[in-house]
TrEMBL record:
<dbReference type="Pfam" id="PF07757">
    <property type="entry name" value="AdoMet_MTase"/>
</dbReference>
<dbReference type="GO" id="GO:0030488">
    <property type="term" value="P:tRNA methylation"/>
</dbReference>
<dbReference type="InterPro" id="IPR029063">
    <property type="entry name" value="SAM-dependent_MTases_sf"/>
</dbReference>
<comment type="function">
    <text>Probable adenosyl-L-methionine (AdoMet)-dependent tRNA (uracil-O(2)-)-methyltransferase.</text>
</comment>
<comment type="function">
    <text>Adenosyl-L-methionine (AdoMet)-dependent tRNA (uracil-O(2)-)-methyltransferase.</text>
</comment>
<keyword id="KW-0963">Cytoplasm</keyword>
<dbReference type="GO" id="GO:0005737">
    <property type="term" value="C:cytoplasm"/>
</dbReference>
<keyword id="KW-0949">S-adenosyl-L-methionine</keyword>
<dbReference type="GO" id="GO:0141101">
    <property type="term" value="F:tRNA(Ser) (uridine(44)-2'-O-)-methyltransferase activity"/>
</dbReference>
<keyword id="KW-0808">Transferase</keyword>
<keyword id="KW-0819">tRNA processing</keyword>
<dbReference type="InterPro" id="IPR011671">
    <property type="entry name" value="tRNA_uracil_MeTrfase"/>
</dbReference>
<comment type="similarity">
    <text>Belongs to the TRM44 family.</text>
</comment>
<protein>
    <recommendedName>
        <fullName>tRNA (uracil-O(2)-)-methyltransferase</fullName>
        <ecNumber>2.1.1.211</ecNumber>
    </recommendedName>
</protein>
<keyword id="KW-0489">Methyltransferase</keyword>
Length: 444
C-alpha cells in the first residue's frame, strides 16, 4: 500500500464510515462519467482482517458508466475494516478484473489494483484527536513500481488529482454527516431512478445526435435536446403508472404552448398519439413533420377563460386527453383548470417557468400564504398533512429570485388543488433550474 494523499479530518469515525457508505452507494458523486452503482451483495461480519482491523462489512457493487458504448461496467469489492475500539478504520475498494492488467480498468476508475481510505489517529498530535481532528489517508496498490513512483512524485498526475478529489469528497460528505446535513431535494418520488436512467439513455441514443445535427432554431440545441429528452423520459414512465391497461399509452396528449415542437416530435417518434398547439409555427415544425408523418403541430391561440367558462366548446381538447405544459408561460396557471374542463381528462404535467398569474401578469410576490382550513376543505382532514407537506416541497430559498419562484410554485400548487387534482411534484433530472413538475394523475 502506498500513501498518496492525506488530510486532517474534522469529524468522527462515525461520520467517516457514513461518508464511505455514501461513496460506495453513489460513485456518480465523484465522476460525471459514472451513471450509478448497483449493489450486488452486502454482508456484515466477514471473516477477514487487515492487521488488528476486522472486516465489518463487504459489499460488491457494479459500477455503470454513463456512456456504455464507450466504456464498460466494473464490479468492485468494497470492504470496511474497523479496530475493536472503533477509533480506526480502513475502507478498501478493489476492482474485480478478468485479468491482472491495467488495461482492464475502465477509464472512469484510477488505474490501480485497489484503493483505500484510512481513518486513524495521529500519534504525534494526540491532543488534536480529542477534538476529532484525525488524519485520514488515501492509498493505492499500483500495478507497477514505476507507476507508483510517478504517482507520488508528481502531484499533477491524474492519479494524485483523483486521490485528492476523492479525499476531498469523502471529507465533505463526513462533514455533512457531522453537521446533520439533509438532502435539500428528494428526487425520484414518482418514477424510479433506474428506470429513468435506462430509458433516458435509450432515448438519447435513438434521437440526440440527429436532433443536434439538424437543429434549425436560433436557440441552443444542447439545452433543448437534452432537457426535452429528460422530460419525455419522465412523461413516458409516468404514463406507464397511469395507463397500465394500454401499455402506458394515454388516449391522446396535448402539448399546450408547444413552442418548437420537439416534445411532440419525440413522443410521436416513440409511438404516442397526440398533438401540440402554439400561437405561432416554428422553423422546426416542417422538419419534424417531414421526418415523421405522425407529428401533429397546430397553430391556434388558446383562450383559457373562454375554454374554462363553459360558454364555448369549440376549442376544448379531445376527450381523455393528457395535458402537458412545459414552460408554457401564460398557460401555466390555467393548465390545471383547462385539464379539469377537458372531458374525462386523463391527467396533466405542468412544468412552470416564467411566473405568469391567471390574469396574464408576471407575479412579483415573494410570499404566498396558504390557508390550511381551505386546503382541508378541499382534500379532507385525512389528507391534510400529506398535502401541506407536498405544497412545502420545492427549491431552496437562497436568493430573492428563488423566493419569488417558491411563492409562484405555491400559487400553482394552490390552483392545482382548487381545480381538483391531487398534488404531486417531482424535481426532474434535467439541466434546468426550472425543473419542478406538477403532476395530476388522480382527482381529489
Ligand atoms: C416559453 S415558450 C415554451 C415552449 C415549449 N413548451 C418549450 O418548452 O420549449 C411558451 C410558449 O407558449 C406559447 N403560448 C403562450 N400563450 C399561448 C396561447 N394562448 N395559445 C397558444 N400558445 C401560447 C408561446 O407562443 C410559446 O411558444
Amino acid at each position: 500500500w502506498i500513501p498518496l494523499a492525506q488530510s486532517t479530518a474534522n469529524h468522527s469515525i462515525h461520520a467517516w464510515s457514513k461518508a464511505i457508505e455514501q461513496l460506495i452507494y453513489h460513485p456518480e458523486q465523484s465522476s460525471s462519467t459514472i451513471l450509478r452503482a448497483d449493489i450486488l451483495s452486502d454482508e456484515e461480519g466477514v471473516d477477514s482482517s487487515i492487521g488488528h482491523l476486522r472486516c465489518k462489512r463487504r459489499l460488491v457493487r457494479n459500477i455503470l458508466p454513463r456512456r456504455p458504448n464507450l466504456d464498460k461496467n466494473l464490479e468492485q469489492v468494497c470492504e470496511v475494516y474497523m479496530n475493536r475500539q472503533g477509533s480506526e478504520g480502513i475502507a478498501t475498494l478493489t476492482p474485480i478484473l478478468p485479468s491482472d492488467n491495467a488495461d482492464e480498468v475502465p477509464y472512469y476508475h484510477p488505474k490501480v489494483r485497489s484503493l483505500a481510505f484510512h481513518f486513524c489517529k495521529d500519534n504525534d498530535e494526540s491532543a488534536i484527536t480529542r477534538f476529532y481532528i484525525v488524519p485520514s489517508r488515501f492509498y493505492i496498490v499500483p500495478f507497477e513500481e514505476e507507476q507508483a513512483f510517478n504517482a507520488i512524485t508528481s502531484p499533477q498526475s491524474r492519479l494524485s488529482r483523483t486521490a485528492l478529489l476523492l479525499l476531498d469528497l469523502q471529507s465533505r460528505l463526513a462533514f455533512g454527516v457531522e453537521n446533520g446535513y439533509k438532502k435539500r431535494v428528494e428526487h425520484d418520488l414518482i418514477v424510479d431512478r433506474k428506470d429513468y436512467q435506462e430509458l433516458y439513455m435509450q432515448l438519447r441514443d435513438r434521437h440526440a445526435s440527429f436532433l443536434m445535427e439538424t437543429w434549425c432554431e436560433s436557440t441552443d440545441p444542447g439545452k433543448h435536446v437534452f432537457e426535452d429528452l429528460g422530460i419525455v423520459t419522465f412523461i413516458i414512465l409516468l404514463w406507464r403508472t397511469i395507463f397500465p391497461q394500454t401499455n402506458g399509452r394515454p388516449p391522446n396528449f396535448v402539448d399546450v404552448g408547444c413552442g418548437n415542437g420537439l416534445l411532440v416530435y419525440l413522443l410521436a417518434k416513440e409511438g404516442f398519439t397526440g398533438f401540440g398547439v402554439d400561437v405561432q409555427a416554428r422553423k422546426s415544425w416542417d422538419q419534424y413533420r417531414n421526418c415523421c408523418s405522425e407529428v401533429d403541430l397546430r397553430v391556434e391561440s388558446i383562450d383559457p377563460p373562454a375554454m374554462c367558462s363553459g360558454t364555448t366548446s369549440s376549442n376544448l381538447f379531445p376527450e381523455g386527453s393528457f395535458l402537458i405544459g412545459n414552460h408554457a408561460d401564460e398557460l401555466t396557471s390555467w393548465l390545471p383548470l383547462m385539464a379539469h374542463c377537458t372531458p374525462n381528462c386523463s391527467g396533466l404535467v405542468n412544468i412552470p417557468c416564467c411566473r405568469f398569474d391567471l390574469d396574464g401578469t408576471i407575479s412579483s410576490r415573494s410570499k404566498y400564504p396558504i390557508d390550511e382550513k381551505e386546503i382541508e376543505a378541499i382534500v379532507g382532514k385525512q389528507n391534510l398533512t400529506k398535502t401541506m407537506q407536498e405544497i412545502q416541497r420545492g427549491p431552496f430559498a437562497e436568493a430573492d429570485t428563488t423566493s419569488r419562484n417558491i411563492a409562484y410554485l405555491r400559487y400553482i400548487s394552490h390552483l392545482h388543488l382548487q381545480a381538483g387534482w391531487q398534488l404531486e411534484k417531482e424535481a426532474l433530472r434535467i439541466p434546468s433550474t426550472k425543473n419542478w413538475a406538477f403532476v395530476g394523475r388522480k382527482r381529489i
